[in-house]
Amino acid sequence: MPIYATTDTATYAPLDLPQPYLLFLGDVTHPAYAKTALGLRDWAPERCVGEHRLDGAGVSVGLPAMTPSQARAAGARALVIGVANVGGVIPDHWMPALLDALANGLDLISGMHMHLADIAALREQARRHGRRLIDVREPPPSLPAASGRKRSGKRVLTVGTDCALGKKYTALSLARALRELGVDADFRASGQTGILIAGRGLPMDAVVSDFAAGAAEWLSPDADPAHWDVIEGQGSLSHPAYAGVSLALLHGSQPDAIVVCHEPGRRDMLGYPGYRLPSIEETIELNLLLGRRTNPAIRCAGISLNTSQLSPNEAQALIASESARLGLPVADPIRGGAALHALARACLDTAP
């Protein structure tokens, strides 16, 4: 079922999503692959009534365990696939749970590359019970190729040394921090989890490559000169599989500032052992070099560290030492505080 109600590609409209949600975790064993469920829990808790896990699951988001029938009785209107696995596939052994959700009165919402609507058994079950299959990883129709035209307004893009290390959380936190500073700022979602949180956006990795930079332009259109769009980054320019999405987003968004996201202690690309992470400095240099193609004034505002594996004291010490070493503001978007507001103010500093 299409989620965009218009074919007008100039319209950045809200999506029609039934709420609240039961979060489906399947049988994932690594938190990085449950980022959709975790993101909804952290940024839209009022829309989440419980979680549904299969045998063998090693990840919980800490919500009450519920069957689809229990969730429906608690007010849920949809089951959201809260998993973002490699390749975005819906395995066969998930099917009984998804069919059960439809039979118990829940719509299905997915951000996977494999669309719900392409699975015959789900289509038939949805038809039988009058339920909806909603695929949010579906870009709006008729996206244009990029124009390269410099747009009005200001933009900050979160970029990273790897996937799944905090680009979305950083963008959401920066947008909130900018608003707290009195700045007119919006979060712009470029992936399935961000779209579910914001209720609008565009799945960059589902766009035909020739139109991906144009999609980034569509995502952040002309705005008031004082307005800031905080754009959720995708992948990494150094990733062996996903660098193309990152480059298109960089070129199309034309950021005035970038914030580099990194997880201390991570050595290899997630899911790609043997592919070492680039350093923060290498990531800054590469993004600025390639970003100058569409915005010669691009600059790095600072660094966002995912310090979730560190104690508060360890995190504070690392944030301070990295800031001193790099000569840039450094913050953890979840720990927040003065460091995050300093990073937000650095995004605004457009002085040469």
From TrEMBL:
Domain D-glutamate N-acetyltransferase-like N-terminal: 59-139
D-glutamate N-acetyltransferase-like C-terminal domain span: 146-338
InterPro entries recorded: DgcN-like, DgcN-like_C, DgcN-like_N, P-loop_NTPase
One Pfam family, short name: DUF1611
Ranges in a coiled coil: none
Alphabetical list of SUPFAM superfamilies matching this protein: P-loop containing nucleoside triphosphate hydrolases
Protein name: Protein often near L-alanine-DL-glutamate epimerase (Cell wall recycling)
Top-level taxonomy: Bacteria, Pseudomonadati, Pseudomonadota, Gammaproteobacteria, Lysobacterales
